[in-house]
């Protein structure tokens, strides 16, 4: 079989690219259904983009690489597409947009776009050897018990990263990049919970509180922190994990809004006979206060606490240093940090500079977004950049 464009991977980037890549486009995936990560994202409602998406929200060895694609296909372009298909959505917090009903609406929209473009989709298809015969890419595929080859003028790697291997994630894109002489940066799990070998936070499992989590390089995120049986999670932690390196401590500010010292000093006048822990439990989760009291002297009534003692405690709560032993790894990571080195790719088209007609898009590339719809926006933007570049070649 011969096609103009073969896209490996039927996730967000692959499906969106197929709608723009022009005639005779084929998308293949080993999964039973397309867009499985879309389906489970955002609690089943898909945080499909962010109103504030810009290159500043992405991590890469080249922080400027994402600018071109993000500027030419913006969050507003994808929102317009969503609106055109009648999908209702809402803003949750911090510019995060979710479907009102189901993430499946996004998958159905992408499939409709593919169908309108005449692209084919093969599921339950295993990928074998990939080579180039001097004119076309030659890809061995196994489908319905039959093994054959597909020749394609253009090959798009949209197979994602290593995150969530139980859904079939592999490092295939990295392997193919290296096979064709491209560099791959170091990869690791990102947007992932921290773990602690001593399970010190097990008594707090399920407790959430606002916090500021600060990594050693000074990067800070103000969102919810969640204690788990194995460690720390929640949006603030997931964000910080992308900037954390093994062996480093993190600083947790449990009073990110400030003002606790003044509140406690005022409480001496109105609730002086109450236990200090009782008053503090009105400001922090009671289970957290109990936990803190095992390592910090919180005894006495609030009236017995001096300004200096209150100030000292608040200073400790604002700069609580803990050292994770690791993370939950790719098993639960929402994304893979690192990937195909952007120095080897065109920022305008996602095409490999040294291998004509070979493209890398989405999570496979060393462009990693923050939590909150940014990684989906990178999928849409990079897919559009590659798809329209491919279509222009075929038309010409």
Describe the structure using short key phrases.
about 400 residues, alpha+beta, seven-stranded mixed β-sheet, seven-stranded antiparallel β-sheet, 12 helices, 21 strands, about 30% helix, about 25% strand, elongated
Mean pLDDT, nearest integer? 96
Class inferred from helices and paired strands: alpha+beta
Number of strands: 21
Parts with pLDDT < 50 across at least 5 consecutive residues: none
Our estimate of the beta-strand percent is 15-25%
Taking the alpha carbons of the first and last residues, their distance comes to: 22 Å
Q: Helical proportion?
A: 25-40%
Number of H- or I-type helical stretches: 12
Rg from alpha-carbon coordinates: 25 Å
Main sheet attributes: strand count, strand direction, barrel closure: 7 strands, mixed
Shape: elongated
If you had to describe this structure to a student in words, what would you say it looks like?
This protein has 12 helices and 21 strands. The chain has 396 residues and is α+β, with helices and mostly antiparallel strands. The two termini are 22 Å apart. The model has no long low-confidence stretch (mean pLDDT 96). Helix 1 runs parallel beside helix 5 and helix 1 (12-18) packs parallel to helix 12 (374-395). Strand 5 (89-91) and strand 6 (96-99) form a beta hairpin. Helix content is 29%, strand content 24%. The strands form 5 sheets. Strands 1, 2, 7, 8, 9, 10 and 20 form a 7-stranded mixed sheet that branches. It has helices at 12-18, 36-40, 67-72, 75-84, 104-117, 172-179, 235-241, 260-270, 276-280, 286-293, 307-317, 374-395, and strands at residues 2-8, 25-28, 47-50, 58-59, 89-91, 96-99, 120-122, 125-132, 137-143, 146-157, 188-190, 194-195, 208-214, 220-227, 231-233, 250-253, 320-322, 326-327, 335-337, 358-360, 368-369.
């Amino acid at each position: 079989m011969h096609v103009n464009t073969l896209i490996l991977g039927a996730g967000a980037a692959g499906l969106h690219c197929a709608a723009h890549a022009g005639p005779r486009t084929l998308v293949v995936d080993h999964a039973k259904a397309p867009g499985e990560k879309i389906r489970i994202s955002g609690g089943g409602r898909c945080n499909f983009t962010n109103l504030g998406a810009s290159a500043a929200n992405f991590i890469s060895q080249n922080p400027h690489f994402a600018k071109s694609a993000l500027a030419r296909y913006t969050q507003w372009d994808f929102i317009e597409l969503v609106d055109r298909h009648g999908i209702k959505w809402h803003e949750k917090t911090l510019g995060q947009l979710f479907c009102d009903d189901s993430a499946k609406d996004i998958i159905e929209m992408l499939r409709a776009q593919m169908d309108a473009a005449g692209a084919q989709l093969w599921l339950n298809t295993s990928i074998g050897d990939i080579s180039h015969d001097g004119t076309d890419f030659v890809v061995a595929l196994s489908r319905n018990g039959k093994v054959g080859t597909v020749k394609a003028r253009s090959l798009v790697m949209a197979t994602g990263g290593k995150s969530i291997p139980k859904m079939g994630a592999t490092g295939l894109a990295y392997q193919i990049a290296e096979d064709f002489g491209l560099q791959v940066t170091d990869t690791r799990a990102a947007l992932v919970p921290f773990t602690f070998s001593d399970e010190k936070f097990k008594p707090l499992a399920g407790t959430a509180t606002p916090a500021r989590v600060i990594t050693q390089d000074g990067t800070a995120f103000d969102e919810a922190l969640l204690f788990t049986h194995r460690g720390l999670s929640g949006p603030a932690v997931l964000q910080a994990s992308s900037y954390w390196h093994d062996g480093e401590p993190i600083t947790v500010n449990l009073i990110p809004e400030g003002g606790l010292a003044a509140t406690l000093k005022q409480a001496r006048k109105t609730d002086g006979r109450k236990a200090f822990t009782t008053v503090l439990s009105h400001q922090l989760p009671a289970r957290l206060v109990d936990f803190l009291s095992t390592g910090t002297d919180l005894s006495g009534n609030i009236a017995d606490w001096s300004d200096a003692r209150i100030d000292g405690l608040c200073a400790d709560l604002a700069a609580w240093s803990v050292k994770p032993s690791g993370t939950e790894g790719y098993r639960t990571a929402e994304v893979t940090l690192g990937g195909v080195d952007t120095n080897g790719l065109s920022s305008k088209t996602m095409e490999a500079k040294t291998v004509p007609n070979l493209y890398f898009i989405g999570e496979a590339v060393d462009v990693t977004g923050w939590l909150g719809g940014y990684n989906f926006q990178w999928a849409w933007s990079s897919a559009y950049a590659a798809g329209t570049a491919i279509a222009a070649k075929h038309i010409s």
